[in-house]
Amino acid sequence: MKYPLLGFLSLQPMTGYELKKMVSISTGQFYSASYGSIYPTLRKLEQEGAVTSNEGKEGNRVKIVYAITAKGEQELDAWLEQSGEEEFVLRYEYMTKLFFSGRRAPANIMRMIQTHVGELEAEKQKLVELRDALDDSCTDAYQRYPCEFGIALFDFLQEWNSRLMQHIERNDGN
């Protein structure tokens, strides 16, 4: 969570709420975050001197705005320079359910797949909207590339599941 937060703060100072929103609409397809992970990470980054916080008021509410420091910029740049150290972890609960679906009736499996294809389409549409918004407002093409990746991934998953449904129909569920 550390580096995505530093990355977003390198774009502009933000509150924890704004950071959560940014993660959700941008990198959330690849890197999820909750308030339970964002705020402890921000506190730790502040203790390390990678970010600062300023408290202000907006109406009756206290608003804490975080900003990246020079140290935080250096840490972000060092992380961006690292390569080949990332572990690829794919947690896709649907595939685990599919793995054990031999216990279920083919009609139930087909319903599960159809529901999932609809969910994939909805998620893809979110990325299409984000990409289109970035096309209108973004000067950094690299912020669009993950959207393009996500759209292509959802297209692949929809096509793969369509082929799976055809296979199940042809083979009476096996």
TrEMBL record:
Q: Which InterPro entries match?
A: Tscrpt_reg_PadR_N, WH-like_DNA-bd_sf, WH_DNA-bd_sf
> SUPFAM superfamilies in the record, alphabetically?
Winged helix' DNA-binding domain
Gene3D superfamilies on file: Winged helix-like DNA-binding domain superfamily/Winged helix DNA-binding domain
User: Which is one Pfam family of this protein?
Assistant: PadR
Q: Which residues form the Transcription regulator PadR N-terminal domain?
A: 5-77
Q: Which PANTHER family match?
A: NEGATIVE TRANSCRIPTION REGULATOR PADR (PTHR43252:SF6), TRANSCRIPTIONAL REGULATOR YQJI (PTHR43252)
What is the protein name given in its UniProt record? PadR family transcriptional regulator
